[in-house]
Amino acid sequence: GGSGNPSAATAKGVVSAMEGALHHLGRGSIAGKTVVVQGLGHVATAMIAELLRRDVGKVVASDISDAPLAAASSRFAGAPLELCLAAPGDASILARPGDILAPCALGGILNSETIPAIAAPLVCGAANNQLLDGEHDAARLLARGIAHVPDFVANRMGIVHCANEQYGRFRNDPAILRHFDPAWENSIFRVTERVLQRSEAEGITPSAAANALADELGLLPHPVWGHRTRLIIDALVSGGWADGRSAPP
To answer: Fewer Cβ within 10 Å of end Cβ, the chain: N or C?
Structure first.
């Protein structure tokens, strides 16, 4: 039962948000970029794997524990990855130069003390509630010219997994995969672009733009998922589960 560990999908969604933001900013693709990561939990580790698949130039990552650093060093041996041990409360990683800063640890990390030191022009990570003060810290980032992808825009696949459990699941589910496809108007890539475009057009923070968009979309009726049962049955048959050739998805 359940939808399984959402970490990989969440990580892929965060990378999709990075791509959408880079495209909006005219900064090209992730290839060759330097990404600075705070925290090496399940999502961050999966995110680094996604970044490497997209030929990222370098990843600089910190954690307050030796264990995840050792695990990442072993898993990504030979990759362009710099790992740093940080003391609890040490947020100096946020000041490391890079193209993207990805907060993937505790919330409240973007605040009046840390924002002045941020060196990256784009902040996009997996941590929840990154802004200590949702209004004032968003304004501080905007004043510094730092583009910020709100956390609930970038990391939405965690909640999508939970919300979709009631509809059943199967491998290569189009209801999941569409979130990563820029061709879909509500994909993470496209929504990230819309949020940043609205922020610029209306002179508001990306957080305010994202909340306004969420309020508008929340008024739309939920679509009926027609033929969902047929898709699940076809997937179970083609995957071999129906005749015992494979485990459940």
So the answer is: N
Beta bridge partners of 148: 123
H or E segment at 55?
Answer: none
At residue 109, φ and ψ (nearest 5 deg) are -75, -20
E-strand stretches of the chain: 34-38, 58-63, 81-85, 100-103, 122-123, 147-148
Split at pLDDT 50, 70, 90, the class of 239 is: confident
- Whole-structure pTM over 0.85, yes or no? yes
- The model's confidence at residue 184, banded by pLDDT at 50, 70 and 90, is very high
**Closest Cα partner for 153 from 213, 238, 77?**
213
Average pLDDT, whole number, for the chain? 93
Q: Compute, in degrees rounded to 10, the torsion defined by CA atoms 191, 193, 195, 201.
A: -140
Residue 104 near residue 129 (C-beta atoms within 8 A): no
Tens digits of per-residue pLDDT, 64-116? 999 999 999 999 999 999 999 999 999 999 999 999 999 999 999 999 999 99
User: Which residue, among 88, 162, 143, 98, has the nearest Cα to 124 in the 3D structure?
Assistant: 98
Which residues, in sequence order, are CB contacts of 12 under 8 Å at separation 6+? 46, 50, 157, 180
Task: For residue 183, count other CB atoms closer than 10 A to its CB.
Answer: 8
User: Could you tell me the two tokens for 125?
Assistant: 């990570």
Closest CA to 18 of 5, 7, 6, 27: 27
Reported as a pLDDT band with limits 50, 70 and 90, residue 165 is confident
Q: What is the DSSP letter of 5?
A: -
**Closest C-alpha to 29, from 53, 7, 8:** 53
